[in-house]
Design a protein that fits this description.
The chain is an alpha/beta fold. It contains ten helices and eleven strands. The chain is elongated, with a radius of gyration of 18 Å. It binds 2'-O-acetyl adenosine-5-diphosphoribose. The site of 2'-O-acetyl adenosine-5-diphosphoribose has 28 residues, from helix 2.
Length: 264
């Protein structure tokens, strides 16, 4: 279930996980040579990659919505407290996702998939931009905003650009229609999580793009499942895992990823 660990608190170690890294960051040349040799690549993305498409990130500037914290809205408790408020937020986000277009970073990852024999992209994003950019082996760890489902009878409903009409939140069965995504306090989809941990564990190179790496369990995929992989972070700012990665490229996803893929 998604939860936040404070950046200063040591990350939870999974038994068998890495003993720790030197913290010395290698350069782009080493990343390129590792990628050229890689048979298996695992990528973890977060909302930063979609900020190049004009969508806001969760933390930092613009991280609040009408003074509401994300964790207050994206939780079963928040939904029980005020389903209209929560759906108003998701309907606005859904509309923004559909207005947005994949960025050069999304397309670069789709192109990288064509070059690597075993490629897995796990995203925390629910905006469908990786799918629209053409990524195929894609794991949406926090679900997506393409559908709603009923909390009572599990009936599903495809969302269009207008989202869910607020008058239709209450379902005929007595349940409520909710976004088909993972909220704080809820378990990730089992199949996606198992596929993601397996892909992280067998990767030669792990790319961590546009995530603050504070929301668990997704953040653990970056450094907890594979002691031998070369881990590169692409983010304009330092994050909770920066001292643990092998290479930190300080730039935007759209600025950095296309040149990496073109240089392979
Ligand atoms: P955050 O908002 O926590 O972090 C966004 C990260 O993107 C930050 O580290 C930024 O420095 C970085 N960033 C900003 N612009 C960027 C760019 N153009 N290119 C690359 N990086 C950039 O978002 P997430 O880590 O995705 O979960 O948040 C994780 C989860 O918290 C979300 O999936 C969501 C949220 O609450 C749920 O709702 C369950």
């Amino acid at each position: 279930m998604p939860s936040i660990e404070r950046a200063r608190k040591p990350l939870r170690q999974i038994p068998g996980g890495p003993a720790g890294r030197s913290g010395e960051a290698g350069g782009v040349e080493e990343l390129l040579s590792r990628l050229r040799a890689a048979r298996s690549v695992f990528v973890l993305t977060g909302s930063g990659i979609s900020s190049d498409s004009g969508l806001p990130t969760f933390r930092g500037a613009g991280g609040l919505w009408r003074d509401e914290r994300v964790e207050e809205l994206a939780s079963p408790e928040g939904f029980a407290r005020d389903p209209v408020l929560v759906w108003t937020w998701y309907n606005e986000r859904n509309a923004a996702h559909r207005r947005a277009n994949p960025s050069a970073g999304h397309y670069a990852l789709a192109a990288l998939e064509d070059r690597v024999p075993d490629f897995t992209l796990a995203t925390q994003n629910v905006d469908s931009l990786h799918k629209r950019a053409g990524s195929r082996n894609l794991l949406e760890l926090h679900g997506n905003l393409r559908e709603a489902r009923c909390t009572g009878c599990s009936q599903r409903r495809t969302l269009d650009a207008l989202g869910l009409p607020l008058s239709e939140i209450e379902h005929a069965c007595g349940g409520r229609m909710r976004p088909d995504i993972v909220w704080f306090g809820e378990a990730l989809p089992r199949d996606a999580w198992e596929a993601a941990t397996a892909a992280a564990a067998r990767a030669d190179v792990i790319l961590v793009v546009g995530t603050s790496a504070v929301v668990y369990p997704a953040a653990a995929l970056a450094t907890h499942y594979n002691a031998g992989a070369f881990v590169a972070e692409i983010n304009p700012e330092a994050t909770a895992i920066s001292e643990r990665v092998d290479c930190a490229l300080r730039g935007t996803a759209a600025g950095v990823l296309p040149s990496i893929v073109q240089s392979l």
